[in-house]
Amino acid sequence: MTILRPILATILSLVLGLLATSLFHESPLHIFKIFLQSGFGSAYDFGMTLTYSVPLILTGLSVSLAFKAGLFNIGAEGQLTMGALAVAVFAALVPLPSLIAPLAGALVAACAGGIWGALVGFLKARRGAHEVIMTIMMNFIAAGISSYVAVYLLKDPNTQNPQTLPILPAFSLTQYSLFNGAPVTFALFLSLLIAVVCWLYLYRTPYGFELRAVGENEHASSTAGIGVQKVQILAMFFSGALAGLVGVGEVMGRVGCFKLDFSPGYGFTGIAVAFLGRCHPLAIIFSGLLFGAIQKGASDLEIFTQNVTSDLALVLQALIILVVSADGLWEKWIPVKKGKA
Amino acid sequence: MALLCSKSLSKILLFVAFIISLSMFSFSCFAKQNLPKICMVLDKGGRDDHSFNESAVKGFQLAQKALHINPESRFVEPKNDAQLPLFLNNFSSEVNCDLIIAIGFTPAAFIPEVASKFPQKKFMVIDSNLQLKNVKHNIRSVLFEEHEGSFLVGAIAAIKSKTGRVGFVGGMDVPLIHRFALGYSSGAKYINPNIKVQESYVGVTPDAWNNPSKAKELALSQYNKGVDVIFQVAAASGQGVFDAAEELNKSDSKSVRYAIGVDSNQNWVNPHVILTSMEKRVDRAVFNGISDFISNKFTADVVVYGLKDSGVNWSLDNNNREFYSPSEIARINLIKKLIIDHVIHVPDYYKINTHKN
User: Fold this and answer.
1) Which of B81, B86, B176, B318 has the most CB atoms less than 10 A away?
2) Cβ separation of B205 and A309 shorter than 8 Å?
3) Can you tell me the distance from the alpha carbon of A93 to that of A241, in angstroms, rounded to the nearest whole number?
4) What does the alpha-carbon distance between residue A192 and residue B126 come to, in Å, rounded to a whole number?
5) pLDDT classification of A250: cutoffs 50, 70, 90
6) Which residue on chain B is closest to A298 by alpha carbon?
7) Quick check: A261 and B80 CB within 8 A?
8) pLDDT at B326 over 80
9) Residue B298 above 80 pLDDT?
10) For the whole model, what pTM was predicted?
11) B28 CB within 8 Å of a chain A CB
12) Does residue A98 belong to the interface with chain B, where contact is any CB pair within 8 Å?
């Protein structure tokens, strides 16, 4: 049943969203065909879908991990910005042998994002500051810092676009030629691996148990002797680190530098990814892939249709969340179906 | 059961819709397949900025009317930077365009990679010199002598200014816009060596092209410091400058503030405040590129439009003629001629500074 619900919700909202396009004189099936073709039509298209999915899986995991600890992390966008910025600066300035360079870059990205998240965790745990407001504000600070670095401190003088110096060759990840030019790199497997690690951490270690316990009931956990403050700070650190790892694929794999506005809101879409996956690390792999495909598919709508733009992706995402979270609706429906079966 | 029924009904409906759409699709596929297909990617600011992008769209639409190009030719507005490489790749492969045009330096940054991946396609970029990255010899870089046109409108600003202070509001703080600014201030100083030139920029990111409220604030502050003519080079943000001038003129009728438009002829936008527009004929560059392509005269080199071929110019029409006496018009046209004949030397920010692109 828990698996059934997101799947049904996805199908239902896709149908609803596509039917809505008929209001604008487009055939829903034509739109659906564009989506399929654009998301999976060729090796390049599929590669781009995967490329889009990697950051969404990571931010989805980031939001879920915090959510499991009872914290609502709206700040994945800021954390991934800091992660990407840190790895871009590090990879542009620190010459390392190519054997350890990508690993070091990933560590830097994770630490930068993690610290950005842990700051919020610390203030939440020690001063009782609300994490939602804190993370939103930290997003703005991250945006400010990153544009300062990209425009004034480490600007690439060879272009008019606001971006940092290109990273050293040792840091760039190899793009698999299988995908005909789409920047699919090891970052894909890294994100899958991390999803599994997250699952192991949450459900197979005592630390994960503590984290979930705090998320379920802070006071009970405290009474039971769990260090609630420590767990909250740690959860925000890991959450931030996961978001920060977006920088690995985006900077070292795809772009080759930190480009201002490189993220089309991965951090916020990550919230939707997490909820569709019901905050389960393994389910998030699939919801991340789905949202990646929707983003990729939607961009082709601009090209192939007259009246529907890529904003349809936002409509679909909103519908999915709406339908998934409509608890009342599901509690009415699911038992009926069970009775029938 | 009812649910099931409605489901199958909608399925039938969808199927019918599918058949209809398929048949329409195949019809359009048969039509005129041999005509060259042209595709264009716009910059941030949007097609209705009354300025840079609108000019590009104008040229494109003129080509659609006047030239024999494939009816499936199209242009897109990117919603975010991540879409740019997707559009360019898609235009080169699935849509199978023959000529792909990138408007502005932001989309142009993605062209070299796509151009070397699809060597049989032709590409054209506006406002970027990609000659060094033109490895497959299929990119035309179009540049404009913005400093020449800006010099001319700088001179006009100085002629019309009563306070001895003129202003400049740029969009994004980049070398391209500094090129306008330097030309403008040199032009103003050519008329009045003691003139004060105020210079401000909306921002440092591409969002600066589409932030009219910030541009308005900057303009208000300049006007309040005694500036009475502002040249805006800020795409869709520029409307804020016009609004500021109009607002102040209404509230304080003792003195008059003017603004100068850019890229398109913007004289009609706010006729009582816009002195003239520094036209940058992106539309002509787009149209000529397409027409060259059709007549097999497309060259993958650097094409420069300047004052001498009216690629940049000052605009004079019925919306702004009232501002000028015949002797002033003669004087402005004389300055224009002197620039074209290189009697007046206009400093070029690109040559003073070693920035590429």
Assistant:
1) B86
2) no
3) 22
4) 41
5) very high
6) B83
7) yes
8) yes
9) yes
10) 0.84
11) no
12) no
Helix axis angle, A266-276 relative to A76-93, nearest 10°?
130
Mean pLDDT of the A159-172 span: 92
Partners of residue B355 in chain A, C-beta under 8 Å: 157-158, 160
pLDDT grade for B354, boundaries at 50, 70 and 90: low
Phi, psi of B265 (to 5 degrees): -75, 105
User: Is-contact A50 A40, C-beta < 8 A?
Assistant: no
Chain A CB within 8 Å of residue B79 CB: yes
The answer, yes or no, to whether residue B18 has pLDDT greater than 60, is no
- The alpha-carbon gap from A286 to the nearest alpha carbon of chain B, in Å, equals 22
DSSP-derived 3-state class of residue A68: helix
- Length in residues, chain A: 341
Residue A52 has pLDDT above 80, yes or no: yes
Query: Is the pLDDT score of B305 beyond 50?
Result: yes
pLDDT tens for A101-122 read 999 999 999 999 999 999 999 9
Half-sphere exposure of A15 (CA within 13 A, CB side): 12
CATH 1.10.3470 assigned to domain A4-8+32-326? The reply is yes
B62 inside 8 A of chain A by CB = no
ipTM beyond 0.85?
Answer: no
Residue B277 neighbours by CB distance under 10 Å: 31
**Any chain B CB within 8 A of the CB of A307?**
no
Chain B interface mutation, best of A177, A262, A299, highest count of B Cβ atoms under 10 Å: A299
- Quick one: closest CA in B to A299, which residue? B83
Please determine, for residue B79, whether its predicted confidence score (pLDDT) is greater than 60. yes
Quick check: A196 contacting B, CB < 8 Å? Answer: no
Quote the CA–CA distance of B345 and B351 in Å, as a whole number: 13
Judged by a CB distance cut-off of 8 A, whether residue B18 touches chain A is: yes
Give B91→chain A minimum CA distance, Å: 8
* Six token digits for residue B125: 């970029």
Pairing of strands B122-126, B99-102: parallel
